[in-house]
Write a structure and sequence with these properties.
By secondary structure, the chain is α/β, with parallel strands linked by helices. The chain contains 11 helices and 8 strands. Helices cover 43% and strands 14% of the residues.
Amino acid sequence: MFQRLLLIVVSFFATFLVATSLSGCATPDSRIASNSNQLKALLPIRFLLSFDDGPAPGGSTASILDDLEHNPLQPGIKAIFFLETRAEGRGGSDTGRQLMQREFADGHLLAFHTGTSGHENHRFLDPQMFEQSLADGVADIRAISGSAPALVRPPYWNYDARTFVAYRLHGLHPLLTDLSANDGKTWGFIASPRRRWALRHQLAAVRERIALGELPVVDGCIPVVVTFHDTNPYTARHMQEYLHILVDSAHELGLPLADQPFYGERGALERAALSRTVADAAEHPRLPGLWQYIW
């Protein structure tokens, strides 16, 4: 409990420091905007949506599923749901299990987040409990989808050599993120008043990496990973706005979009996600926002 409270305090102050420091820094816009030919040569991007900490029986997961299926930009968007398969009030409830079944039936990709009763940092779990949580979570997802998950998102984005080896022994590949809505709850605060600015700023940094050839090309486009929390009711209420923000930001930054700006088929979604996973325990890709400064 103390560890989680400490993490929340650090997160709060890191958010403040990062936000205030960014105002005086040169932006990725200013670093590469002058090279218009470089931008014109870029392959199109496609946003790979992912959701953490669910399912949420309170209604937000169901609302997000509805918006992904029915929206004016691209009906039938498919996303990755990183599940807490046995958490109380999440996948460990009857409604939660029904939501996970709906996610799979709707064509989304089920992936592993936790298999414990809460949102535990895997590094700090007892080794035997950690191993059991992996076995339980993989079995829970296999029972729904008919196959074991291939993707894991470590809670708090945190892993080390020991947990990385354990993931791989269970066939799990860690996927982090390029963009984050920063919509995880902090002391009950669930809103995102600067959501448009934040996502655009993060995408500008990703654009620089794309221009340098650092991101892979899969099926003719570059997958850009975006993270939300389907447990957040604010996110659920603004899901369609978030979709527009991503598309608008790409246009504003001169990033070409694929004909379908989001993934619409589970197989293509999984191929793209696997291309972006962490390949080695010593690799620690840059994370957006405050998380880069915590671990």
